[in-house]
Amino acid sequence: MFIIKHKKIFISISAFLVLLSVIALFVFPLRIGIDFKGGALTEVAYKTERPPQALLDAQFKNLDLGNLLIQPTGDLGYIVKSADLNEAQHNLLLKALSLDGKNPLEEKNFNSIGPSVGRELTRKALIAIVLVSLGIILFIAFAFRKVSRPVSSWKYGLMAVVSLLHDVIIPIGLFTLLSHFYGAEADTLFVVAALTILGLSVSDTIVIFDRIRENLRNKMNDSFSDTVGKSLDQSYMRSIFTSLTVIIVLLSLFFFGPESTKYFALMLTAGMFFGTYSSIFLASPLLVLIEELQKKK
User: Fold this and answer.
1) Distance, CA of 169 to CA of 185 (rounded, Å)
2) Domains (range + CATH), the chain
3) What's the CA gap between 243 and 257, in Å, rounded?
4) What is the pTM of this model?
């Protein structure tokens, strides 16, 4: 009941964070990665043993070649995406990949890559977000059709989508700060992280909404705000502990994983945190606020 009683405070906090994130997007534009602006692709295969990716990441830090994205391929190979390279820079990259000649390799491929793949991925990601949002509204409206009083069933879906936007916009705002101050670049992993946040965060919101639905169907002799408050009391610990286990795994990936996935893990961690916050402190309080506004009409 504490959350519902102070709902305007929690809703204001979310609105303030979203506003800050939007301002950050305009003040500190995102650095666009190789996948979106194009660059060079280098594929190598080692003759004996492939060195650990962390060791190559350490080698790359000494190079002045911008952001490098390295991905394993096959049993002995790596694919490296970089900005356009001249001959001298290309040789410098191969020298770093071979650990200064200590680990012989064979260059399988070297060519330029265009930004068309990134543009296509972005287009499909935007379409996916729109379709997912519509699907959530329709699904929840159907599932909640028998408890459409005092709040219409489609408004549950709408509040879930509002929460999803909150959960994605704030991590993107944080990423813009990382982009400005630490050189993080938005690449395909950035888009994947945003879509993953959508999938992870909506589950908590639906679980809490389902508890509200069950309590409404049981026809508890309480006001709508009391019913929502009791539903939160019954389910918020489950949401927190479930999200906490995922966050621990993501933080492990951030601290001990390869350099190329650190910002991906950090963005997902922020998404899980704010997704849990929104399912408890935003989505359900918004339902109560809508119900109160309806009474005043």
Assistant:
1) 17
2) 2-33+117-296 (1.20.1640.10), 39-113 (3.30.70.3400)
3) 20
4) 0.79
